[in-house]
Recover the amino acids of this structure.
């Protein structure tokens, strides 16, 4: 498979997955972009345009850009908006990973989460299953979206005051 690297694993992995899962099956090309103003709330206006929303909580890690403290979080909120544009024979996915602040140095800066490639693939497959179901009417009991990870290694409490998604009232369901 040709892999034109974008430099961003989310975009690269999504491109590969959508080729196999969406483009081949439905002849429509989907693209993923980041948008840091998304919330889990979809205004009526957007719904009318065909946008749908899904949340994929995950675990991942952060590195503080000030003190280099590294921490894992079992509860990183990622919001996706997606829509099929039937007339244009393509689809769009927008994503926003929510950030967290370092509690070691109180820098007050939100840091971006990092995920390993297996996790990214798992999260994106969950989104693609949603797209197939909600945009193409695919009902396949064998292909239910992967459950959000319940990894027992991370038992630290979640610091709401340092979590961007908690601050916006989005994280509570994770
Ligand atoms: Zn720090
Ligand atoms: Zn939170």
């Amino acid at each position: 498979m040709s892999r034109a690297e974008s430099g961003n694993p989310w975009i690269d992995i999504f491109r590969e997955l959508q080729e196999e899962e969406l483009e081949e099956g439905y002849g429509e090309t989907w693209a993923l972009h980041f948008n840091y103003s998304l919330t889990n709330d979809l205004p009526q206006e957007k719904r009318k345009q065909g946008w749908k929303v899904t949340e994929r909580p995950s675990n991942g890690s952060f590195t503080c850009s000030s003190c280099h403290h590294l921490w894992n979080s079992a509860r990183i909120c990622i919001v996706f908006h997606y829509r099929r544009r039937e007339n244009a024979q393509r689809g769009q996915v927008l994503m926003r990973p929510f950030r967290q602040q370092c509690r070691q140095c109180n820098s007050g800066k939100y840091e971006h989460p990092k995920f390993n490639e297996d996790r990214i693939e798992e999260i994106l497959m969950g989104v693609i299953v949603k797209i197939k179901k909600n945009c193409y009417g695919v009902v396949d009991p064998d292909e239910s979206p992967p459950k959000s990870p319940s990894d027992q290694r991370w038992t630290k409490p979640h610091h709401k005051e340092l979590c961007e998604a908690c601050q916006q009232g989005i994280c509570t369901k994770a």
Remarks:
- Helices lie at 9-26, 44-48, 117-136, 164-167.
- Residues 64, 66-67, 69, 102, 104-105, 107 surround zinc ion (ligand 1) (CB under 6 Å).
- The CA atoms of residues 110 and 151 lie 24 Å apart.
- The mean pLDDT is 89.
